[in-house]
What does this fold into?
Amino acid sequence: MNIEIVTQELELKTHLYGRIDRRMNIAPTTWPFHDLFWVHQGGVELKFTEKNSTVMLNAPSGVLIMPNTEFSGRTVDSFATVSICHFEYNGDCGAEFMRPGYQSVRDTERIHIQNQVGLAMFLAKRNDPKDIPRRQRALHAIIDGFGSQEHWYSDRLPNSHDRLNTAWEAAAENLNSIRTLSDVAALASINESRFRTLHRTKWKTSAGDYLRELRLKKAEELLATTGFTLAEISQKIGYRHTESFFASFKKNRGITPGEYRRRSKPFA
It folds into this structure.
């Protein structure tokens, strides 16, 4: 977050971890303090009442909900495992950290933030007063991972919805059916050559590399948060053969998918 926070002014409150299912919807709730809501496994849909906005959180992911923000929610599938961390901030940091709204986690840091959340839960469960300064520092580090999208109720900014963004968003949600870059280009109603040119002009990167990273980032999520086999993950991210997925992951991440899974298991 682009806000100066004094670590010692973070007052720790409840930190809980548990499972919710379709029988246990999150009723409309408003807290007078901050709520760090994190999804460790599964998916959760949160609705924010004032702006009638909906956020889909697929593990690992979360939101930092500001004080006095009304929200409700439900699981996307049969169940999800989540944690909540309530805290108050007693320092002077300006209105940005206190007004109703929420902030999203930085997309490229979600796996790392999940590990930090796991450490924070481990320390909270140990419940040793000597750990309080360390828990405050851990919480501060987690908060720094939020702010990729700022949803303030007073000045929420619209996102770009051009053809490239729309195509990539659709591809990210349907990687299992995206076999080649031409499938992504078709979502933008243009040919592959034109799509490559537009992508490079806008983002200064290769569209092929971007698609590969979409697949591998999704693979990282699935490896860290599910029990799917490598063959199942290969299919879900659009690889026809497990061997191709294994080779791409090893080449671009420097470790095998199995090694990544072992390293990414969250604290519980």
